[in-house]
Amino acid sequence: MLAQSTAPLGISRLHDLWAEQNPDDWWAATEAAIIGLPAEARAAVEGIGLAGQMHGATLLGTDDRPLRPAILWNDGRSFAECVALEAAEPRSRTITGNLAMPGFTAPKLLWVRKHEPNVFASIRTVLLPKDYVRLRMTGDKASDMADSAGTLWLDGATRDWSDAMLAATVLTRDHMPLLYEGSEPTGRLRAEVAERWGMKRVPVAAGGGDNAAGAAGIGVVKDGDALLSLGTSGVIFVATANFRPNPARAVHAFCHCLPGLWHQMSVHLSAASCVDWAASLAGVDVPSFFALAGQAGAAAGPELFLPYLSGERTPHNDPHVRGAFLGMGNETNRGRMAAAVLEGVAFALADGLAALREAGTQVDELSVIGGGSRSRYWGTILAAALDVRLAYLDGGEVGPALGAARLAQMAVTGASAAEACTRPPVNRILEPDPALAARLASKIERFRRAYAAIRDI
């Protein structure tokens, strides 16, 4: 890596279960991040890759302008539409390999059709978030297989739009972008954008949804390779040589962003976001929050934290459940609550890994990416709760952006995945600590019983 730059984004939550963003804010943030890079780095760019949050419904009219704010991946309003979608197309789980969940794109369109019929009638194109950014960059309406698989409009086995699933939401292929493998070029920077960014009119690769791109970035590109992503959400991602769905346990089965590969995922809607939230409530920054937890120690008390701040996907598929602290007493302090937050996220991920293992997936090691990978202490908790070896990689905290760059390299040079998507050097390995696992075992069992206890209230 030669340089990196970021720009912030906010989320609008007008009602319970809602999460929206203005697509034009993505473009403004993209431009701010690009211009924030050194001029010499921008001038040297030979290709661009894209990675982005999955599932977001970006609805454009005939002028290619957004008709309303985008409905995001962690928006839970379309739960009733999920039932309606599966009733309209009873083969949906077979075609897509997935349960219909409120986070996915297709149910969101049914919600818009029911509640905002004038908007629905005006829709000319539906794009995913990163693909709206692509449209502003290149003028092309295109997407990759991995991101598109998260819409519920893609036939996962054939890697093509499903006319049956589109029909179930009263849409056609005309509303969809063209499909590409993630390492294929889809167009070039517009002349005016290239001039503003101080770049040549370089090719733009199809890219990938955030988790698939993150996998490409750290070399999770062979059958059985696996990663743990500790971003806003938490994901366990396993690359597979074939399409292996397990919708009964809310496991996702999607195309990879590389040709001839698929992947399974357990997805947890709140991971590092729980740390940010709890640190803010405690009045400390994130490093201090990790220090508080470390000082208290693992399994220090009976406190439990259920990390369902935005509902949960794997294994519960429950947009309504919310987080909770349980087992607090007079002895509870900030440190023990901090420890409980880290443990609670780890326990949720353990539930997701159990669902993957029930699907016949063997996982012995996880490469760790995302901002949460910076904490060694949290890593010891995760390794023990998951009972897997964790590998921390150079640059792993960058996650999907590194994968987007790898995909751009493939698009420009024609390099193979084996050549471009190499595993970065390993910084450290964390083996599961049997003694710590034994101390956590009873808390994990209480955690699993707690979901059923709070679900209906």
Reconstruct the topology from this structure.
Blueprint: E1 20-21, H1 23-35, H2 39-44, E2 51-52, E3 58-60, E4 70-71, H3 79-88, H4 92-96, H5 105-115, H6 117-121, E5 125-127, H7 129-138, E6 142-144, H8 145-149, E7 154-155, E8 160-161, H9 163-168, E9 178-180, E10 185-188, H10 191-197, E11 203-205, E12 208-209, H11 210-217, E13 226-230, E14 234-240, E15 252-255, E16 262-268, H12 272-282, H13 286-296, E17 304-306, E18 324-326, H14 334-358, E19 365-369, H15 376-386, E20 389-393, H16 400-413, H17 417-420, E21 426-430, H18 434-455
Parallel strand pairs: 2-12, 6-9, 13-19, 19-20
Antiparallel strand pairs: 1-4, 3-5, 7-8, 10-11, 13-14, 14-16, 15-16, 17-18, 20-21
| Widest sheet, order of strands | 15-16-14-13-19-20-21
Q: What structural class is derived from the secondary structure elements?
A: alpha+beta
Largest sheet features: 7 strands, mixed
Strand content: 15-25%
- The low-confidence runs, each spanning 5 or more residues with pLDDT under 50, are none
Overall outline: globular
* H/I helix tally: 18
Return the CATH topology of the largest domain: Nucleotidyltransferase, domain 5
Percent helix among the residues?
Answer: 40-55%
Provide an overview of this structure.
The chain has helices at 23-35, 39-44, 79-88, 92-96, 105-115, 117-121, 129-138, 145-149, 163-168, 191-197, 210-217, 272-282, 286-296, 334-358, 376-386, 400-413, 417-420, 434-455; strands at 20-21, 51-52, 58-60, 70-71, 125-127, 142-144, 154-155, 160-161, 178-180, 185-188, 203-205, 208-209, 226-230, 234-240, 252-255, 262-268, 304-306, 324-326, 365-369, 389-393, 426-430. It has 457 residues and is an alpha+beta fold. It folds into two domains: 20-209, ATPase, nucleotide binding domain (Nucleotidyltransferase, domain 5, 2-Layer Sandwich), CATH 3.30.420; 219-398 and 425-457, ATPase, nucleotide binding domain (Nucleotidyltransferase, domain 5, 2-Layer Sandwich). The longest helix is centred in the C-terminal third of the chain and has 25 residues, at 334-358. The protein contains 18 helices and 21 strands. Helices cover 40% and strands 16% of the residues. The model has no long low-confidence stretch (mean pLDDT 95). The strands form eight sheets. A seven-stranded mixed β-sheet has the order 15-16-14-13-19-20-21. A two-stranded antiparallel ribbon has the order 1-4.
